[in-house]
Write a structure and sequence with these properties.
With 217 residues, the protein is of the alpha/beta class. 33% of the residues lie in helices and 20% in strands. It has 8 helices and 8 strands. Helix 5 runs parallel beside helix 6. The protein binds D-xylitol-5-phosphate.
């Protein structure tokens, strides 16, 4: 299994429809939306209005990454917009338990996000019913960063942990992914890959094709 999630954070919003359709026709599997509130991370990206727009632009599954201090108020609206997956951070005040439960109760797939400095073991109490663990391979809050050293070891460590406890959760990575570093990330256990700059940074088609070729298996 391998899926490429095109992060619209890096898209040219002056022609979003063309960009999204190009990523889709070039082989992007999922449309990935980073919602940032300016508190959990210093940047503000977009609100749920973009989710409604994306639902009209693509038939691909929508994957929403909530980089917000309080994810709960967003969840009913995301469910209304037929979002398939929502990921929340382990690091939010009060912990992710309530938000993960609310995502599942709203009928969406739940993902837990671990920042680079958060150890894999932090995910253990939440593994029941978890569909995805998103390992940040950059510091959250900005696109166009460099893939962090040590990320592949963390991916491999998470793979071993999930195998030990028998979890079906998919390992997803986000941040600084390029055709050069993707093969090793895949070999370490990443099966869902978020890419913004590598997809939208040049011509979308070649970006997606290049990423896909880099991990032809
Ligand atoms: C960081 C964002 C980015 C984005 C992908 O908070 O989550 O990682 O989705 O950006 P690139 O692929 O440009 O690093």
């Amino acid at each position: 299994m391998f899926e490429l999630c095109a992060s619209i954070l890096a898209a040219n919003f002056a022609c979003l429809k063309r960009e999204v359709r190009a990523a889709e026709s070039a082989g992007g599997d999922v449309s990935y939306i980073d919602i940032m509130d300016g508190h959990f991370v210093s940047a503000i990206s977009f609100g749920t209005g973009i989710v409604r727009t994306m639902g009209r632009l693509t038939q691909k599954p929508l994957d929403v990454h909530l980089m917000v201090e309080n994810p709960l108020p967003f969840i009913p609206e995301l469910a209304e917009e037929k979002v398939e997956r929502v990921s929340v951070h382990y690091e939010i005040p009060g912990g992710p338990e309530k938000a993960l439960r609310a995502i599942r109760e709203a009928g969406m797939q739940a993902g837990l996000v671990l920042d680079p400095e958060t150890p894999n073991g932090a995910a253990k109490p939440y593994l029941h019913g978890l569909d995805r663990i998103l390992l940040m391979t950059v510091c959250p809050g900005r696109g166009g960063q460099t893939y962090l050293e040590g990320s592949n070891q963390k991916i491999a460590g998470l793979r071993s942990l999930l195998d030990r406890v028998g979890s079906r959760a998919v390992i997803q990575i986000d941040g600084g992914v390029t055709p050069q570093n993707l093969p090793e990330a895949y070999a370490a256990g990443a099966r869902s890959v978020v890419a913004g700059s590598a997809v939208f940074g040049g011509t979308v088609q070649s970006g997606v094709a290049y990423l896909r070729r880099s991990c032809a298996f």
